[in-house]
Amino acid sequence: MAIIAIVLIVLIVIAIIGYAVVGYAAGESRVSAAEKSLNAVVSDQNKLTNTFKEIDTKFQGVNTGSNFDAAQAKTLLGQFISDSQDATNTVVKDQTSLTAASTKLDQQQWLTAIDKGNINKAHARIDHAQKALASAKVVSDDYVQDGQFLQSFMDVILDLDKLSASASTSDLPGAKAVVATLKTHVDTATRLSTAPGLPTQMHALMVDFQTLTSDFGKLIDSAIAGDETGLTTYSDKLQADVTKLGTYNFDQMGSDVTAFYKPYIDNFNSEMSAATA
Fold first, then answer.
1. Would you call 246 helix, strand, or coil by DSSP?
2. Percentage of the chain with pLDDT > 70?
3. Alpha carbon of 210 to those of 75, 80, 144, 196, 217: distances in Å?
4. Cα-to-chain-centroid distance, residue 267
5. Are 77 and 151 in contact (CB under 8 A)?
6. What is the spatial distance between Cα 167 and Cα 238, in angstroms, rounded to a whole number?
7. For the chain, which residues make up each domain, given as ranges?
8. 107, 261, 273 from 119: Cα distances, Å
9. Listed residue (46, 116, 53) closest to 80, CA to CA
10. Is the distance from CB of 154 to CB of 107 less than 8 angstroms?
11. CB 84 within 8 A of CB 150
12. DSSP 198-209
C-alpha cells in the first residue's frame, strides 16, 4: 500500500509539473501571438504617421499669399483625402486584429492560469493600443471630411481667379458663366463647412461667400443690361462683401483646427507609448 501511495504521489507531482509546463507554454504562445499582432499594429500606425508627415511637408511647400497655387493645393488635398481613407481602413483592420488577439488570450483559462501575469500584461498593452486606435479613427474619419471641404474651397479660389481674368478683359458672358460655376462650388463648400474639426467661423465665411457670389452675379447682369442703378447698387454691395470677408482671421481658424485635434493626437501618442512600453 505504501508503494501504491508513493506511485500516486509521483503521478500527481508529474501531472502538476506537466500542467505547469503545458499551461505556461500555452499561455506564452498566446502572449507571443498577441505581441505579434500588436507589433503589426504599431508598424501600421508608424507608416501612417510618416505618410501624414510627408504630405504636411508638401503642403508647407505650397506658396502662400499672392503666389498661392490653389491647383497644386487641390491636388495635395486629393492625396490627403485618399491617405485619410486608407488610414481609417487600416485602423479598422488593426482594431479587428487586436480584438481577435485579446479574445485568444482568454481561451482555455483553466490551462493558462499559471501564466496569468503575462497574459494580463498583454491584455493591458492591447487595451492601450485599442484606445490609441479609437483616437486615430476619429482623426482619420474627420480628416476625410475636412479635406473634402478644403478641396471644394480650392475650387472656389480657382473660380475667383477665372472671374478676375474675365473681368479684366470685359468678357461679361464669360464672367456670367464663371459665376454660375462659382455658385455651385460655393454651395458645395458651404454644405461641407460644418465638418468636424472646422470652427464655426468657417461656415460663417462660406455663407458670406454665398452673398458675395449672388451680388457678383447681379452686378454682371446689371452690366450686361446696361442698368446704371444696378451697377451702382451691386458694386457697393460687392465692396461691402469683400470688406466683410477680409475681417476673418484665417490664422485663428487654423489654430482652432489644430486645437480640436490636439487631444486626440496626444491621446494616440500617449496610449501607443503605453502599449509599446
1. coil
2. 75
3. 24, 26, 24, 21, 11
4. 14
5. yes
6. 14
7. 2-74+82-276
8. 11, 33, 19
9. 53
10. no
11. no
12. --HHHHHHHHHH
Q: With contact defined as beta carbons under 8 Å apart, do 120 and 266 qualify? A: no
Spatial CA neighbour of 42 closest among 148, 130, 170: 130
- CA dist 186 and 180 (Å) reads 10
Residue 66 is given by DSSP the state G
What would the pLDDT profile of 26-62 be if each residue is shown by its tens digit? 444 455 555 666 667 777 777 777 776 776 676 565 5
DSSP state string for 104-146: HHTTTHHHHGGGHHHHHHHHHHHHHHHHHHHHHHHHHHHHHHH
Whether the pTM exceeds 0.85: the reply is no
Phi, psi of 199 (to 5 degrees): -70, 155
CB atoms within 10 A of CB 257: 16
Q: Look at residue 63 and tell me whether its pLDDT is greater than 70.
A: no
Amino acid at 185: H
* Residue in this structure with the C-alpha cell 500617449, named with its chain if needed: 270
